[in-house]
């Protein structure tokens, strides 16, 4: 006897009929305002540069399990050395992955012209005197010159990634598709920078990796939409371009939501249990996935509508065909 399968609860409809292009203008205005605000915020108040880009040192300070480190005393002890910005935050232990207050990460600046090794030893001595016997691990020191080079290299990596994505879409589709994709990528990157400034997330090499990942994910989603759009442009040669765009977005909407939703769930778990080092990385990626889906719908596709597409004699002023009811030739 054949086994009957469990009934599946369909949360997402198989076919949707949303008129995305109808709201492209207000969505575009909102995107422009948010991008301008994000760019301004990158200069004032500015990015919260991490040790990688600002120069300085970081180390883990820990006591035996169950013995709490008094973070205020650590901060006061290091601040008394006049080293500039000092950050102390409790983190989970590496061996138990539990935050019992016995481990903290300490970040501080190394003044220019001072010996880095000597400064680290002074900090260790001051912390030990303030909170008692502790152990140090994961000591990392980055000079100001190296940090400046890393920051420049990080921005160059982002620019090169966007340029390569533009070339890829340009050669695979048409110039207007490539232009729409790049506008969408820039939109995602700029808004991610705005998020970093808004929540004062630490901008480090991990954050650069997150933004590069966002670029790749956003481009993947955009290519899926553009593939369906190109297919429908060939199939419905007399359908107005705005209706073809709406049809293509509706046909790929369920796939986009499922893919983005599963990725966000994984990243949410990473943000909750991955510790301080991966928290900002996870938050930025979650935001990038959401805004990347938005840009594929309300940034990349509307740019193509503004530019127009040649369809071999297609009449864009033809009578609109109702979405979901178009008959295939």
UniProtKB/TrEMBL annotation:
Domain named Protein export membrane protein SecD/SecF C-terminal: residues: 128-308
Subcellular location: Cell membrane
Membrane-related topology note: Multi-pass membrane protein
Superkingdom in the source lineage: Bacteria
Regions crossing the membrane: 27-47, 150-170, 177-199, 205-226, 247-273, 279-309
InterPro entries referenced in this protein's UniProt entry, alphabetically: SecD/SecF_arch_bac, SecD/SecF_bac, SecD/SecF_CS, SecD_SecF_C, SecD_SecF_C_bact, SecF_bac
Pfam family, one: SecD_SecF_C
Keywords, sorted A to Z: Cell membrane, Membrane, Protein transport, Translocation, Transmembrane, Transmembrane helix, Transport
HAMAP family, sorted: SecF_B
Function: Part of the Sec protein translocase complex. Interacts with the SecYEG preprotein conducting channel. SecDF uses the proton motive force (PMF) to complete protein translocation after the ATP-dependent function of SecA.
Subunit (UniProt): Forms a complex with SecD. Part of the essential Sec protein translocation apparatus which comprises SecA, SecYEG and auxiliary proteins SecDF-YajC and YidC.
Similarity comment text for this entry: Belongs to the SecD/SecF family. SecF subfamily.
Protein name, UniProt field: Protein-export membrane protein SecF
Gene: secF
